[in-house]
Amino acid sequence: MVTAYLGLVKSICQIRPSAGTGIASHFPTRVDLFPLHRRCESAHLASVESYTAMLSSSSITSLRDVHTSLNFYVPVNHEEPYQYVFTPPEGIAHNNLDSEARPVVVLDVRGSESEYDLDKNGFQYVRWPSAHREFTDPETIKTKYYAEVEDLLKSVTSAKRVLLFDHTLRLSATAETLDNLGARGPVERVHVDQTYEAARARVHRHLPQDADRVLSSRVRIINVWRPIQNPVAHKPLAVCDWRTVGPDDLVSVRLIYPDREGSTFSVRHNPDMRFHYLSNQTPDEVTLIKCFDSAEDGTARLTPHSAFTDPGSPPEAPHRQSIEVRALVFDSL
Ligand code: OGA
Ligand code: FE
User: What are the boundaries of the signal sequence (predicted)?
Assistant: First the structure.
């Protein structure tokens, strides 16, 4: 089954968009926004309105862009949003968050990956094969795989120092929900892992002596997200172009641990937002997800992201497995 599926992926990859009934029959729900999408990219932000109009035009069709929905934040009463990361005290709800599914077209970057980068868009796709396929031994991950990720980040960002502080293996097909944080499957909710404040606090936590000094230079938090074992067929990861995120779209959520508090951003729906993904992303291709940048000069500071359902996913394909490593990236030593 899996072998047959991989053969299918290969044959599809060799035929690029511009139609063919064979492909369309495999992915009947994909439509083509490709040519106009490219034009909008170069026209940049001024094109958001025409882009939105384009999304509602059914005459433009592509095979690779995915019509789906993403889950966005909606307020509950006027309470300050919070989420417990452990069992809350008796009588207190785990969280007070709600979400709504809104239709979104997630645009495929396959073939134009190099047009996107961390500073302009907040995300970047890099071909960086790993020596590791299995990711079963935590020690090997922390020593050998972390070393690869450090090299990758230094090479892409020219940073002087990289501190990998955490990783998550997503091996389960069961989605990680607000009420089931331990599921370690795809996260189907638009979010950013840290707020600006939590990112700075993290620098203090990991480098208590050096925090003020390193924070006087540029500090970034970047996740390195890699598929494991197979090309991603189910629940790919969508990333949002920073230039299309409005100032009111990010909602700070208190993250309550037994011994401390952090915070993450939940994300309101905004029709201007543009989401992208890399179709059939392979284990040799990583997504760099910027979660924080101390730079305030117009550089992309973060990218909201979420896993999504691709209605064209071959049902027989294996569920997605992935690893994300979280890194503090410093411009100073
Ligand atoms: C991440 C993330 C979710 C997923 O890497 O920060 O949110 O579904 N991943 O892989
Ligand atoms: Fe995340």
Answer: none
Among the atoms of ligand 1, which is closest to the Cα of residue 185? 8
What is the distance, to the nearest Å, from the Cα of residue 287 to the centroid of all Cα atoms in its chain? Answer: 7
Nearest residue (by CA) to ligand 1, atom 10, is: 186
> For residue 164, is pLDDT > 90?
yes
Q: Please give the residue range of the domain that contains residue 292.
A: 66-330
| Of 161, 135, 83, the residue nearest 325 (C-alpha) | 135
319 is a domain residue: yes
Separation between Cα atoms, residue 332 and residue 327, nearest integer Å: 15
The CATH number of the domain holding residue 259 is 2.60.120
Q: DSSP 3-state assignment of 161?
A: strand
Distance of CA 328 from the midpoint of ligand 1 (Å): 17
Domains held by the chain: number: 1
The closest-lying atom of ligand 1 relative to the alpha carbon of residue 188 is 8
Residue 42 lies in a domain: no
Q: Which of 135, 172, 277, 305 to mutate to test the pocket of ligand 1 (most atoms within 8 A of CB)?
A: 305
